[in-house]
Structure formats: structure tokens, C-alpha cells
Amino acid sequence: RLRMGEYYSYSVLSTWLERIAENMPDIAKLIKVGTTIEGRDILGLKFGKDTPDKKIVVIDAGIHAREWAAIHTASYFINLIVNGREEDPQIQNYLDNIVLYIIPVLNPDGYEYTRTDKTNPRARMWRKSRSPKACAFDGVRNSCCMGVDLNRNFDFRFSEIGASRYPCSEIYHGPSAFSEPESKAYSQFLTSLKGRLEAYITLHSYSQLWIYSYSHRKFTYAPDIEETRRVAAKAVQELGRMYGTKYRHGTGPEIIYAFSGGSTDWAKETLKIKYSYTIELRPGYEGIIEWNGFVLDKNQLIPTAKETWAGVTVVLDEVTNQW
Ligand code: 0X9
Ligand code: ZN
């Protein structure tokens, strides 16, 4: 059992997931999405008894290495389901009526690298995967750097906008769509759920935003936009009721910036999911981008996770209550 409100190494988190699956086989199963470039297993838990008629919801976090609050939030959700289900009929209802996958760290190599910040202070702000160096001539010299922004590597309008072809960029999209083992494995995992996957939620930080498709172009919306927007509006309202945290909702280009190659647009488009959301957690964003927005004070971790759960339950309720 892990105490919430703390950050843990990927190996501690992995062992925790394994123990949960061992000790509660009737509610949780360990799943392996794939293997990272450095050989780590991308692990998650599958909650609820799987029967073919049940709708599926997938929640992930940590595709960006430095977004520790997102990883904590996904871990908190797992802890809540495992340890809070007996007192919470709403959670019991989810376990009975849907299948919920939670993958707390999609980019464990990057996450572990950010945890080496004690010896390498710059490491804490790492965003990408840890794929080997690639080189490109940037106009001045041939520059070589490690890592791909996995949230630019999905096969939706790959490389079109808000992504870079230079390996030294923070938003390097990689040589081709799904060139990276992490994004490729994850796309195959999500594809295997096609038809029953009703909601996909990816947790990021920060800016306090609830984002839906599409991300590449302003005023360009995916199918079910009215429904998507209605549920997003309700989710941010519920989220805000807890501590007064103010979220905005909209498409990326409307409320933050345009980009392509992200997981939610790909999932929405390819898998025809009804609800596909990117959530940017605390802190808020006030005109200037503070570098340390990714370093959320530990005392904010639990409130952040709790309010996010309040928003996410709006989506889970939609999925649970429609047949
Ligand atoms: O840029 C990203 O990949 C995400 N933001 S982050 O700061 N966590 O890196 C997603 C931003 C969502 N924006 C759009 N959908 N345009
Ligand atoms: Zn992110």
C-alpha cells in the first residue's frame, strides 16, 4: 500500500501495481502495454470484470516525463478504486458496470530520467522519451539529441503542425508516425479495444484545461462535438466545485495552441471513441509559462488528484449510464 501525496520511482510503482493484481484478482488485473526503448515494461491495471457487453474506459498519464502531478493523479485513482471502493458506492458501480484501464506512466524511461535531477538538475524538465540520438542539420550544424515527444508521434496528421523535425527540439515528432516502441505499443493496445472503447482520457500538466478534438486546426471539430463539449463543461464544473479551481474547456487551438500527432486526436479519429479528452492539471496558466509549473508542491498533489477525479467521474457516469 502506497501513501498518496508522494512521488515514487517507476520500480516502486510497478511493484505496487503487481501487488494489487496479486492480492485482488477479482477486481484488478495487471496488464502490460509494451516495452520501452530502454526495456522497461509499460504496466497498467484493468479494473472490473470483463464481459463483452461492457464499455471500456482508458485513463493514462506520464506520456510526458516531467508531468509528475499527472502520474500522481493516475496513481491516486488506482489507490481510490482499490482502497476506497467499499465505502464508495459510485466506485462499486463502476467496477460492476464498466471496464476501466489505468496506465499511470506511459513514458517510464523519461520519468526515471527526470528523477535523476539530484545529480543532473536539468533532467527534471525532460519531456520526451529516451530513444537514442538522432541527428539533423539545423541550418548551422548537424545537431544530435535523444528522445521523441511521444505526444507528437501518433498517426494523426503526423508532423503537420506544432511539432518539430529536429531531434533536439522538445517537440520532436520522431522519424515517422509510431516509430517509437511506446507509442506503437500503446496504439496497438488501444486498437485492440476498438468498438467497446467509449472514453479515453490522458492526463498532462499543466494549465487547468479540459481539451477535446481536434488539435490541429481552429474551429475544426470531431464527430459528437456537441456531446463532447457538454460533458466537458459538466466535468470542469464538477471539478471546480471541490476547491474552486478554475478550468477552461475547448479544443487545443481555441484555448492553448495547435499541434498534431497527439494521442487523443488519433484515438478519437481512428477508434471512433465518443469521449476523448486531454486534461491539463494544476497549476493554472497566467499569461506566462512558468518553468516550474511542472514542479507541483507536494501539498497540492492530493487536492489536484481529488478534484480531477470529480471531473473524471462525470465522464465515467456518462459511460456507465448509457446502454
Ligand atoms: O503539447 C502537448 O502535447 C500537451 N500539452 S503539454 O503541456 N502537457 O505538453 C497537449 C496540449 C493540448 N493542446 C492541444 N490539444 N492543442
Ligand atoms: Zn504533457
TrEMBL record:
Cofactor requirement: Zn(2+)
Entry GO terms, CC: extracellular space
Domain of life: Eukaryota
TM annotation in the entry: none
Catalytic residues identified in the record: E280
UniProt GO MF annotations: metallocarboxypeptidase activity; zinc ion binding
Alphabetic keyword roster: Carboxypeptidase, Disulfide bond, Hydrolase, Metal-binding, Metalloprotease, Protease, Signal, Zinc
Keyword Hydrolase: yes
Span of domain Peptidase M14: 6-319
One of the GO BP terms on file: proteolysis
Family per similarity comment: Belongs to the peptidase M14 family.
Name under which the protein is recorded: Zinc carboxypeptidase A 1
Source organism of the structure: Caenorhabditis elegans
Entire-sequence positions represented here: 128 to 450 of 509
